[in-house]
Amino acid sequence: MPRNALLLISLGILMSSIKPAWAQTAAQTAIDPAAKAIFDRHAKLVARTSPPPKYRHTVVEISMGESKSSVESFVQLPDKILNVTTMPGIGTNEAGYDGKIGWSVSPMTGAVPLTGAPLQQLKASIRFNAAQVADSNYTRLLKLPRDSIDGRAVNPVLTVAANRDSATYYFDAQSGLLSAMRVFRAGGQPSDSATLMLFGDYRKVDGALMPTKLTVRVRGHEIVTRTTVYDHAPIDSAKFIAPAALRELAKRAP
Q1: Could you tell me the CATH number of the domain that includes residue 61?
Q2: Count of domains in the chain?
């Protein structure tokens, strides 16, 4: 399989499997108190201690072997975002939301409306913290026997949601922070359980503790993403304006 294709597939696995709280609702049943305590400890560690800034500009570099790509993200709270993804051999893709209209632009499709799950995922990323996991999202939490990942002891917790989505989260036994996760079922569909996502290089960002390095290991391949730029300088509002054709289309919509 071409490297770029594998990279796209793996990124899709990643973004579809880490779900924001609004995507899962379930009453708590069969909750192991020991598992809940692990979640609670992590939640306290990554909790926001100050209001988020109005503007956020980040650059995430993604590498798999010699293949390199990047995602540059511009955010203006409460509801504007533009992601610019650059991949060798594919070109530059954009995905944006101006508070009313969602869109994507690529060399293959041009400007098209962004709707449904992709738009919801984009909107969720405006305030997204990859380190946040909430035990209230699941119908079952079970602490598994202590394990180790890359030589470090971890406390695994098996989670099951109301729609039967399931994953195992691995929390560092010493720090209490989320170290890794393995997804078995996401979005109602089986996932590749050979895929392991590792979180590292935690730093205080926007008043919250967040991982700035994410490693995805899938069947002998390793994809590493690093946040290399993070600033809060004001962003020109023009950057969030939807393409003219889509603005006209929105005006004609009933």
Answers
A1: 2.50.20
A2: 1
What pLDDT, on a 0 to 100 scale, did the predictor assign at position 9? Answer: 41
Residue 100 CA to residue 84 CA, distance in Å, equals 19
Look up residue 134 and give its amino acid.
Answer: A
**C-alpha distances in Å from residue 196, one per residue of 61, 203, 206:** 19, 21, 27
Tokens read off for 233: 């300088």
**Structure tokens given for 173:** 């036994």
Structure tokens at 159: 């989670």
d(CA 38, CA 27): 19
Q: Which residue range is the domain that position 234 belongs to? A: 3-252
Q: pLDDT digit string (tens) for 38-81?
A: 999 999 999 888 888 899 999 999 998 888 999 999 999 999 99
Number of H helices, E strands in the chain: 4, 15
Comparing CA positions, the residue from 59, 63, 72 lying closest to residue 227 is 59
Contact 187, 16 (CB under 8 A): yes
